[in-house]
Amino acid sequence: MGFRIRVSTSMTILFAGLILTTAGCSSTDIKQVLGKGVGQAAGAQVGYGANECFAVKSQCQQGHFESWETSDGTEGCSCKSL
């Protein structure tokens, strides 16, 4: 008596895409991808590096902008819409 997990096609494609996307990435890249995903889920725009953070700050007209330094010394930032 086993159990079966029902997985939709879209979930399978999403999971496969995540694996393929992160297969050649460093742990820093994976953290940034996950950080951006969590930020989007929370209604925030997230960026890493000077260029991305400049763009996020420029587009953050009606929001709350924050910046920080990541554990590897990279600049991180977010804009949470109000």
Automatic annotation (TrEMBL):
Span of the signal peptide: 1-16
Keyword annotations: Signal
Domain of life: Bacteria
Name under which the protein is recorded: Lipoprotein
Organism: Fluctibacter corallii
Lineage summary: Bacteria, Pseudomonadati, Pseudomonadota, Gammaproteobacteria, Alteromonadales
